[in-house]
Amino acid sequence: MSNLILHSLVTKRLNIITYLAILLLFSSCTTGVKNRTTVDPARTQTRPYLQQEYRIQVGDLLSVKFFYNPELNEDVTVRPDGRISLQLVQEIMVVDMTPAALTHVLTKKYATELKKPVVTVIVRSFGAQKVYVDGEINRAGILDLIGPMTVLQSISLAGGLKATARINEVIVIRRGTDKKPLITTVNVGKVIDGTDMSQDIFLMPLDIVYVPKSPIANINQWVEQYIRKNIPIPFYIGYQL
């Protein structure tokens, strides 16, 4: 009889502890994202990117062609230090230059070596035109950013959302103009139901799209990891997604 009473008391105490832990988890889920997001700056950088002239990045494959001196034609890859090496001229820092600006620089440099340099720079492949998708999606990984791509399109290309996804607070992490991370959240749920398509912002190179777990999914995971697996007393708390 005493064992049954002890079992009942322990079970009730565990239920109370679990309930309190769930309340704490809910409070952390509802305040964590709000304290680290800035919506407007990320949105204002999106549209101008689609209209800007391309700037050369690390890993890009460049074709440098000479109209009157084809023997100097070269295909070069931009090194991790942002430079390229060409015949007759010294190493050149090219990262963040437009192809037109690099053409102008090379024309001036080769003017001291050639009588009439006519240079063309063509970007053959793009090393940094990628975005990263992670979190509660079916295929986390890297996507090539070949053309305009929105947050929902990137999620779709990554296999779509899991049932445990928090669709109202998808996080987009972007490199700001000062090289510091710029974080914003978008409500993909409103895009899916068509109530606010402005939430489906365009992505920029090297953006990270992270889909967090829903609050209920976090609770279920906590109960599974810290209660059911660690306490050898059978009891049931039902939380369904």
In short:
The protein has 241 residues and is α+β, with helices and mostly antiparallel strands. It has helices at 2-32, 39-44, 46-51, 99-110, 151-157, 188-192, 215-228; strands at 61-66, 74-77, 83-84, 92-93, 119-125, 130-135, 141-144, 170-175, 181-186, 208-211.
Cα shape: elongated
Poorly predicted runs: 22-41, 235-241
Domain tally: 2
Strand content is: 15-25%
> What is the CATH homologous superfamily assignment of the largest domain?
Outer membrane lipoprotein wza domain like
User: CATH fold name of the largest domain, please?
Assistant: Outer membrane lipoprotein wza fold like
Q: Determine the fraction of residues in helical runs and give it as a percent range.
A: 25-40%
Question: What is the alpha-carbon Rg in Å?
Answer: 27 Å
Give the strand line-up of the largest sheet: 7-6-10-8-9
Report the structural category: alpha+beta
Largest sheet: 5 strands, mixed
CATH hierarchy, class of the largest domain: Alpha Beta
User: How many alpha or pi helices?
Assistant: 7
Mean pLDDT metric: 77
Compute the number of strand runs.
10
**First-last Cα distance:** 38 Å
Model description:
- This protein is α+β, with helices and mostly antiparallel strands and 241 residues long.
- It folds into 2 domains: 35-51 and 129-227, Outer membrane lipoprotein wza fold like; 61-125, wza like fold, CATH 3.30.1950.10.
- The protein is 34% helix and 20% strand.
- The chain has 7 helices and 10 strands.
- It has helices at 2-32, 39-44, 46-51, 99-110, 151-157, 188-192, 215-228, and strands at residues 61-66, 74-77, 83-84, 92-93, 119-125, 130-135, 141-144, 170-175, 181-186, 208-211.
- Helix 1 runs antiparallel to helix 7 (215-228).
- It is elongated.
- The model is unreliable at 22-41 and 235-241 (pLDDT under 50).
